[in-house]
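User: Second chain of the day. Same drill as before.
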Amino acid sequence: MAILAASASAHGSILFDQIGAPANLPPTGPEGFYRYGSQVFVGEPQYDVAALDDFTISTGARINSVATVIAGYGAFSSYDAIQGFELRFFASPQDAAAGLGNAIASASLGLPTTYTGYGTGMMAEFTLAQSIELSAGHYWMTVQAVNHAPSNGQVGVVISDIGDWSSYQANPGGGFGLPGNLLARPVNLAYRLGGDAVPAPGVGPAVLLLGLARSRRR
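Assistant: Same format as last time:
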């Protein structure tokens, strides 16, 4: 396991960061793509797709902010036409493939105050209206753009060179014909979570920050 840098921010500590600097977002990846669809297809739920990446926390955490870097494709024409964003946490990619309602926690994020050009896409940052508290464990997260594909194409999360090169796309409605509604991807996704460690009885905050760890598979 690698220890996350728990730097301070306006939203507490950065608990998980695969965005990094603009230079950490490459223009192409192992499969020839630089972004992977993650979208709620308005009026076409069979195509809803979640781009999932994982993280591990060894103590409880309170999530109060999230960021992602996105890029449009296909018939995409305007970031202003995106209707909102959804944040979801799952226990496994298979749970997401079985249905987005299997999320163990979720939040409707609304729209960012602004979209900021960042590396290969546009940064979207959000403060949660209500914090999400997660216990110690291994989780899979996704941020999906809520978007009307016939008029505004598709939206994906861009890739990063930070992470363990393992992620998934889940399409529980089966519209894309994926085997088991799930596809493994050899990339890292540009996600960031901010918040605070939740103290266990008798555990000091400095120890908690060191316990926030990113999983690495062999």
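Helices lie at 93-98, 149-152, 205-210.

User: Great, on to the next one.
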